[in-house]
Design goal:
alpha+beta; Nuclear Transport Factor 2, Chain: A; six-stranded mixed sheet
């Protein structure tokens, strides 16, 4: 009996008891869908709540690398005026570590910017999944890259001078 108790404790997540990768992926998929919906519905409290206090959000502009509270401050005016973003997942892959307490994902999103890619990681903390990092990037078709590079060159040059 003691052996079974030890085995159960060692092989399950201490917070939820769930280490089934399929179940975890379903749970994370629902959380991410809700997170994107919270933004579309301008529910800032719920949107930010998924993010860990140490979470960083990396946006599409090279200057956009925020900690959670700074990101919340950036979002506030958009959410206050109900002029938020509606990112609709088109495809998502979710990966689970062996102990079932860390996941990472990548997703393709339909957005006002066209097709974007999101990626990030979540950790199970005190029984709740918390977003640790999210990276949003604009997906650029390879055949359009030369035109995009021409548009970006001047802005990138200015940015590089600022960070040196």
């Amino acid at each position: 009996m003691i052996f079974l108790s030890i085995l159960f404790c060692c092989c399950t997540s201490p917070q939820t008891g769930n280490t089934d990768p399929k179940e975890i992926r379903l749970e994370i998929d629902k959380l991410l869908n809700k997170w994107h919906l919270d933004a579309a519905n301008a529910d800032l409290d719920s949107y930010i709540e998924l993010m860990d206090s140490t979470c960083n959000y990396i946006g599409t502009d090279a200057t956009e690398n925020w900690k959670r509270n700074d990101f919340a401050a950036f979002c506030q005016p958009f959410f206050d005026t109900k002029k938020t973003w509606d990112f609709i997942p088109v495809q998502r892959d979710i990966y689970v570590n062996e102990t079932g307490n860390t996941v990472w994902f990548d997703e393709i999103l339909d957005t006002h910017m066209g097709t974007c890619r999101g990626s990030g990681s979540l950790e199970l903390k005190n029984g709740k999944w918390k977003l640790m990092q999210y990276v949003l990037s604009v997906a650029i078709p390879n055949e359009s890259m030369d035109a995009v590079k021409k548009v970006k060159y001047e802005a990138d040059s200015v940015f590089k001078l600022k960070v040196k």
